[in-house]
């Protein structure tokens, strides 16, 4: 009798756990039918709601590619706006399935904070923005300046390192969110605003008179930005890694949003055939179907198309590809082999 009760108890507990905590992220996302993605508080170019409230931007497209590969629809995403200090814990706690939000890959975050990084999608570096009227042309001339910065960022740590290394003193003023930090700078509370240089360009464009502000030439740090996932679910990490890597591979092979279906049918290149599911079954290694990469590319285009759409010369930001170009064109992006 007792034994029977114990068996029933164990079975019920096991089933309960199975439906709550034991499912993999892939299973959870498929069952939910929606990808939960942590995103910024709004940075032009990277992620910002458009006039109809739909999120658009470079980081948004990286996440839509994952939704297209996994859920067969790049629109099946719920974006959760996160302040910088929330971005790690939102992933480690399972509040979101991934974060695609200007997050720098660092040792401590990777090893100690319950998250894993995937693909470096943007190589950035930290910089300083000042009002032109200050008349300063180098960060080393900023001794005694007050610096506005957002809490929970690498920016907060790097600015202190920079002061120490250059034997200068800053008054570092830390704000809970980016909005507060930027407003404080705009209203003259601080002499300097600091964050990743691409974000400085993006946020400068939102100020009342962008031309009155200067981004100083110094690059304080390396900020390799990557989508992140919860530590401990290797299959999910692989999915996000290989979808984002696949967008870079697509650019290497000249596969675009417009030509992907044609290339799938006509290409004789075995590498391309494997990537697009024409031969082999690379999707099955990830728990996905054969067309995982075709859908990702159809939805957002290749890496270069995404970059052009949000940072290219036709955009307000116009951030040169530079280090974010393909390795074959002098940049850092080098796709891993899909085989
Ligand atoms: N890459 C840095 C900083 C990135 C970052 O998120 N910066 C702040 C300050 S500008 C921010 O909140 N950005 C975007 C936003 O959510 O509005 C990091 O990973 O800590």
Describe this entry's structure for a reader.
With 339 residues, this protein is of the alpha/beta class. The protein has two domains: 11-123 and 225-329, 3-Layer(aba) Sandwich (D-Maltodextrin-Binding Protein, domain 2), CATH 3.40.190; 126-221, Periplasmic binding protein-like II (D-Maltodextrin-Binding Protein, domain 2, 3-Layer(aba) Sandwich). It has 13 helices and 14 strands. The chain has helices at 2-20, 25-32, 58-71, 87-92, 107-112, 154-165, 178-186, 197-204, 234-252, 260-266, 270-275, 292-300, 303-311, and strands spanning 35-39, 48-49, 55-56, 77-81, 98-99, 115-117, 122-124, 126-131, 146-150, 171-175, 192-196, 213-215, 223-225, 228-230. The protein has a five-stranded mixed β-sheet, sandwiched between helices. Strands 4-1-5 form a three-stranded parallel β-sheet. A two-stranded antiparallel ribbon has the order 2-3. Helix 3 (58-71) crosses helix 9. Mean pLDDT is 94; it is low at 6-20. Glutathione binds next to helix 6 and strand 11.
């Amino acid at each position: 009798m007792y034994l029977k009760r114990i068996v029933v108890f164990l079975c019920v507990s096991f089933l309960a756990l199975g439906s709550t905590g034991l499912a993999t992220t892939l299973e959870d996302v498929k069952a939910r039918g929606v990808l939960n993605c942590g995103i910024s508080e709004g940075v032009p170019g990277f992620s910002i709601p458009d006039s109809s409230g739909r999120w658009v931007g470079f980081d948004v497209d990286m996440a839509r590619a994952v939704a297209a590969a996994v859920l067969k629809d790049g629109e099946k995403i719920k974006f959760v706006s996160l302040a910088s200090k929330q971005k790690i814990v939102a992933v480690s706690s399972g509040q979101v399935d991934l974060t695609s939000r200007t997050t720098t890959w660092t040792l401590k975050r990777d090893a100690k904070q319950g998250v894993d990084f995937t693909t470096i999608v943007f190589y950035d570096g930290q910089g300083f923005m000042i009002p032109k009227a200050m008349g300063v042309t180098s960060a080393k001339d900023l001794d005694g300046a007050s610096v506005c910065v957002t809490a929970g960022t690498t920016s907060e740590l790097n600015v202190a390192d920079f002061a120490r290394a250059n034997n200068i003193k800053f008054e570092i003023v830390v704000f809970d969110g980016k909005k507060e930090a930027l407003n404080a700078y705009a209203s003259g509370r601080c002499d300097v605003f600091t964050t990743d240089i691409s974000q400085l360009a993006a946020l400068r464009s939102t100020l009342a008179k962008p031309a009155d502000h200067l981004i100083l030439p110094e690059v304080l740090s390396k900020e390799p930005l990557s989508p992140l996932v919860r530590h401990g679910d290797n299959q999910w990490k692989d999915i996000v890694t290989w979808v984002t890597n696949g967008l870079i591979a697509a650019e290497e092979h000249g596969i675009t949003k417009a030509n992907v279906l044609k290339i799938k049918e006509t290409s004789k290149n075995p590498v391309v055939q494997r990537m697009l599911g024409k031969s082999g079954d690379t999707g099955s290694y990830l728990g996905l179907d054969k067309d995982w990469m075709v859908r990702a590319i159809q939805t957002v285009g290749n890496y270069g198309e995404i970059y052009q759409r949000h940072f290219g010369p036709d955009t307000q930001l116009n951030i040169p590809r530079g280090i974010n170009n393909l390795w074959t064109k002098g940049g850092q992006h080098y796709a891993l082999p899909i085989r």
